[in-house]
Amino acid sequence: MPMKVGRFQQFLDTGNALCFCSKMNFSEVFKQSNQLCRISPDGKYLATCVQYRLVVRDLKTLQILHLYTCLDQIVYMEWSSDSLFVLCAMYKRGLVQVWSLEQPDWYCKIDEGSIGLVSSRWSPDGRHILNTTEFHLRVTVWSLCTKAVSYIKYPKACQKGTDFSRDGCYMALAERRDCKDYVSVFVCDDWHLLRHFETETQDLAGVEWSPNSCVLAVWDSCLEYKVLLYSLDGRLLSSYSAYEWSLGIKALAWSPSSQFLAIGSYDEKVRILNHITWKKLRELEHPATINNTTAVVYKEVERRPGVGSDNLSIQQHVSVGSTLFKTHSKYVVCSLPVQLPVSKPDLDRANPKIGVSSMAFSSDNRYLATKNDSMASVVWVWDMQRLGLLAVLEQTSAVRCFQWDPCRPRLALCTGNAKLYLWSPAGCVSVTVPAEAGFQVQSVSWHCSGDSLILVGKDQLCLCYMEED
Amino acid sequence: MGDSWTTATVEPSIDNHEISSISRLIMSPSRHFNGPSTTHSSTMQLPKSSYNMLSAFCTEDNIPQCVLYINQEMDSLGFSSACIEASSLEKSVGLNTVAALNIMYELLQMHHRTQRRLEEQETEQLKNSSALEHLQSNNSRLKDQLELCKREKSGLHEVERQLQLKIKTLQNCLKTEKDEVQKLQSVIASRASQYSHDAKRKERESTKLKERLNQLLVDKKDKKLAIDVLNYLGRADGKRSQWKTGKLEARHEGEMYKSLLGDYEARQRALMLENSELKKVLQQMKKDMVSILSPSPRKPRSGSRADRVEDSLELAGSDREEEVGDCSREGLDHSCDHTRDQTCEHAREQLTNSIRQQWRRLKSHMERLDSQASLVTQRQHCAGNELVSRQIHEEEMERMRMEVQQCRDFIQTQQQLLQQQLSSAYCDEDTAALLNDCYSLEERERLKEEWRLFGEQRKNFERERKSFTEAAIRLGHEKKAFEEERASWLKNQFLNMTPFVDRKRHTTLETPRALSISSEPDMRIASTPAALTKSRTYAAFSTPKAALVPGIPSTADLYRTLCLIPDSSSSSRGSSKPGSGQEYSTFHNREDTTVRSKHRHGGGDGCSIFSLGSEENSLT
To answer: Which Pfam families does UniProt cross-reference here (chain A) (predicted)?
Structure first.
């Protein structure tokens, strides 16, 4: 059934020289549930889940190509790497259903039975499914090519227990045996155990491959600040610990070039390690008062429509009829020093809301975006060339999600309202999504080409197209 | 009555009188304090003022005795007893009146003195008593203070004691607290170990449970555990799956190592690239440094003076440095060759060493330049006034010339236009007539007016030019005067010159140059404006170089006029052949001796020669 594609257009001020697109188009909103909407890896399709139905759309026309019905409400959905299959998991029933795009009547149903299911995912080749059973009893590897079923015992329940290398060749799996942490490296091709080694951790919290698939970063739980770097063949390359006796690592991120390893911790700092000596290059602090003269502080200011435009505005948008009565916001460059809003966390409780929890490198390795949990409404952008603060975005509400454009140095973020925010080295822009009231952007994700964005709301989604001149 | 009392005792009465008189005289304001004795004395009559016949000391009868007595008394008091003589022979009293009166007077004087002294002593006593009183009060105050202090001290002692007590208790507390802490720490440690032990136990249990669960699930043959696929898919790469064999394992290993190797290679390449870049930069830097630092013996002789100064400064250490530089340069080339293909340890070391060396040299060079620059600026400051004025003068001249040129051009175009008009008038009479009609009379008038104006302007310019030429002439005159002055200065200089004046230079190598250096300070001042402007560009490093203007006599000329140096020397002055250097040195010696001899023979002769030289200069 062909769908009418209604597009609202949002024209941006053309008086500026920002390198944003000159025009942003927004699609109609679509229903979704559980925030399940994914663009296929090849960028052609958009899959969304609505209750127990899986809807696959052509991304260009937004017309529905296929409609699949699952046995229960879908909890998790994932595209296979070749964009031919979609996996739908229903954890409560221990069920996984796989659908094919090429053969709509092909089906596959995997039942984990009474053992239960907590997580399901594709292997990088798109022909195997890895199911983690309840209590982390084992990982079941189901092959769609053969009847073979493999079990991997003793997987560790932790922050990030498994990670596939970027090239899809290897899988690292954290294990716990005899109260000791181990890492197993599997060859994804035939699930051959390549290496198995004990790690020097108290309580391993996660493993992550470097983008060049040669170094595995292993970090300890927050009770101890410890990062171990292992070579692919299991040799310990280096270990790093910044301090002791205090809550440690909160997040870890590799730069796309594998050159930097950013470690965010509870002490509200990000430490950048280099890939040659694995020593610290710089500590990036997140102070509440910014008096760094090289940094630009953008503050989001809300205003009612009809208020005369301010000279200080970086970017403002022209509203169309439907958004006339919404609050508008714009960015204002603050003169230094700037005091940022800080929420004092309760340090006596577990997992205090403090420290750097999310970090992301831009695709060109030039910028690093971070967020400190005690300043939830602030996103920090760092210049990796001079390892210094470049920009600070102070939003009016807490930042939910930020993601870099996969092709350009452009950061999209959302704060749970009807606006989309974009940052680029040239400046900042705030755009109101022209959907009906109630649409609040909870998360954003870029299309692989970087020219469109999915804005995911509570039970709706909307596409945003960037048009370059 | 008191009379009877006084008669009864003569001596004490006197005493008494004295005391009473004292008390009356001094203590009169406080008489009532003295009680009955003073009241008594106040009623008493003074024996001095009234002579009482009834109880007199001396009567008609006892005059000699009295006299005797008086004499004795006087003697005892130290007066001459001859004052009163008793003429016992005549049985009559012969009183030496003058002596007695003198004695009386002296007695009175004495009396006055004693009175005064008494007064003084009384005041003194009063003072002392008041002082005493003051001291006593002071004393009592101090005593009070002492008492207070004592009390305070005791209080403080008490407080101290209490505090010490407190400290002791606190120390005890601390000790107990410390013990507690230690205990707690041990408790914590034990708890931690207990916890970890428990955790381990629990974990083991859980793993056991998991095992068991697994076993149960496997045993139960969970029917639901199944995969239901319509038809199996082909592999993503289109290949068929392979059997697990040792060969496959080896292949995996090989692939892993291959990817690792690839990564390392890529990294090494990147590092190599970076290294070579850095090396290139280093080498470039070194080259630059070498080129900056290397002394420039190949520079033409017309180089600025600073070069020469530098040369002379460097000359001493140049041999050593030259060697070092050469070796370092060699090292550089060497390392250059090496780094093309490999990073030889030796070459690297050499490179860094040489860089370090060059850096040191650069640093010292910079320091030297700094000092030189300060020197030069100082000198410039001295010669600044003239320089500035000339500079301005030059600029002004240039500007004027430009203006004149512009005006000329303007006039020319005007003339051309006029001519054109005329010619057009000739060639086409009709149009000319028309034009003439068109051109009103006032137009012509205007043109005329303009013409007149131009004429005036031209005149003005002529006048200005004249004034400038006059100024130039004046300058020429000034220059001449200055040259004369300089010549005289040179003369003086020459006269003062001794053969042993060392110019801090190897005279054996380049005598003419040494000489020219010696003559430079004055040349700098006398140099022409052109030379000055040129020299200003070198200001940072050099002083103006002597320009050989025909009007200015050089030292060599001077020598020539003195017939000290043959003409050939001046012509070959610029070249510095090693052979000629030798020659010059001999000349130099000779000239020195002649100069010395001239100097010895007398100033008059030398003077005439010099004046002759200066005349010649002025003529040229």
So the answer is: WD40 (PF00400)
Rounded Cα distance between B556 and B276, Å, is 57
- Is B204 in CB contact (< 8 Å) with chain A? yes
Q: Answer whether B605 touches A (CB < 8 Å).
A: no
| Beta-ladder partners of A218 | A207, A228
The pLDDT assigned to B555 comes to 53
Contact A61, A68 (CB under 8 A): no
For residue A292, give both structure tokens: 């760094």
d(Cα B22, Cα B20) in Å, to the nearest integer?
5
The Cβ of residue B465 has, within 10 Å, a number of other Cβ atoms equal to: 13
Task: Write down the pTM of the prediction.
Answer: 0.57
Rg of chain B taking only CA atoms, in angstroms: 65
Residue B214 backbone dihedrals phi, psi, to 5 degrees: -55, -50
Question: For B549-581, what is each residue's pLDDT tens digit?
Answer: 444 545 555 555 555 444 444 444 444 444 443
Q: At what angle do helices B529-537 and B345-427 cross, to 10 degrees?
A: 140
In angstroms, the CA A454 to CA A465 distance is: 9
Nearest to B558 by CA among B600, B477, B620, B476: B620
What distance, in Å, lies between the first and last C-alpha atoms of chain B?
Answer: 141
Judge whether residue B423 has pLDDT over 50. Answer: yes
Contacts with B184 (C-beta within 8 Å, 6 or more apart), sequence order = none
Query: What average pLDDT score do residues B482-498 get?
Result: 84
**Contact flag A213-B259 (C-beta cutoff 8 Å):** yes
pLDDT of residue B529 exceeding 70, the answer is no
Alpha helix locations (H) across A292-404?
none
The residue among B498 and B365 whose pLDDT is bigger is B365
A244, A258 contact by CB (below 8 A): no
Angle at alpha carbon of residue B574, lines to B570 and B579, rounded to 5°: 85
Summary mean pLDDT of chain B: 68
Paired tokens of B304: 């600025």
CA A19 to each of CA A9, A289, A422, A429, B315: distance values in angstroms, whole numbers, following the listed order: 19, 29, 11, 11, 62
DSSP state of A81: T
Which residues in chain A have Cβ-Cβ distances shorter than 8 Å to B185?
none
| C-alpha distances in Å from residue B194, one per residue of A220, A247, B200 | 21, 22, 10
Q: What is the pLDDT of residue B385?
A: 54
- Sorted by sequence, the CB contacts under 8 Å of residue A322 that are 6+ apart come out as A8, A434, A436
Does B253 contact A at CB distance below 8 Å?
Answer: yes
Packed helices B345-427 and B305-341: angle between N→C axes, nearest 10 degrees: 120
Question: What end-to-end distance do the CA atoms of chain A give, in Å?
Answer: 33
Taking residues A352-364, report their average pLDDT: 92
Asked if B96 contacts B85 with a C-beta cutoff of 8 angstroms, the reply is yes
Complex-level ipTM = 0.75
Strands in B140-239 per DSSP E: 226-229
Among candidate residues A368, A356, A355, A362, the one with its CA nearest the CA of residue A405:
A362
Q: Give the nearest partner residue to A137 out of B210, B230, B244, using CB atoms.
A: B210
Specify the pLDDT at position A323. Answer: 43
**CB B200 to CB A179 under 8 A?**
yes
H/E run at residue B3? helix B2-8
Among B207, B232, B260, the residue with its CB nearest the CB of A233 is B260
Q: Which of B217, B223, B233 is facing A115, going by the closest CB pair?
A: B217
